[in-house]
User: What shape does this take?
Amino acid sequence: MKLLSWNVNGIRAVERKQADLWLWEQDFDVIALQETKSHPEQLSEHLLQPKGYQSFWHSAEIRKGYSGVALYVKQSPNEIIQGLPDYNFTDQGRLLTAVYDTFVVCNGYFPNGGSKTSNLDYKLAYYQAFLDHVNTYKDQGLSVIFGGYLNVAHTEIDLARPDANKNHTGFLPIERAWVDDVIADGYADVFRLLNPTKTDVYTYWDQKSRARDRNVGWRIDYWFVSEDIKDRITTFDTKTEVQGSDHCPIVLDILI
Assistant: This one.
């Protein structure tokens, strides 16, 4: 199974740039998009029903043009779940879970901690609720694959300037500790599993400062898999050459 995750920073903008065209040519089994910033009624038929795929959307209820995730799948799931069980976490269009017979796939757009304590508290609560969510499926004996924009760089080699960002949201010790908890609960960060010490590989760059030209970035987009299937990983690719967003796509190939 070949899975792609990409924070598109506006799916309609990506379509206008024709940056989405390569998606439909790569034969992905699952396409997980974050920050779609749209509702289905705003989208072209091409984005809603590309040939060979079913599409599922979770859009923000609090306002249009904000947040949102989408899943395109070739294999029909048994169930699609929008959001998390707690209503406090369902109105921002942040999560889709596709449930199959033996595994689940989750696509998430995780909150930003921002500069306010309340924002960070919300983010940390969301992190815990999400981990509880995927653990429920793992405890049922299902394999778990989850990915998307997790909005945290785990270690110092996951961003270009760790010292300058040690007090900034996205790299705070308490946020990074959550990734430790995820790994301790039996999930593997696929990129880091395959590349334990690799540096200078990022998935996000600030557009205003043209940071991508200098590769001053952050690795804050991930695919994780439960430990029972980590030995089935075949390849992982960070598509830094793909333009159209301030993030680049990441691709996981796994036997499942």
Observations:
- The radius of gyration is 17 Å.
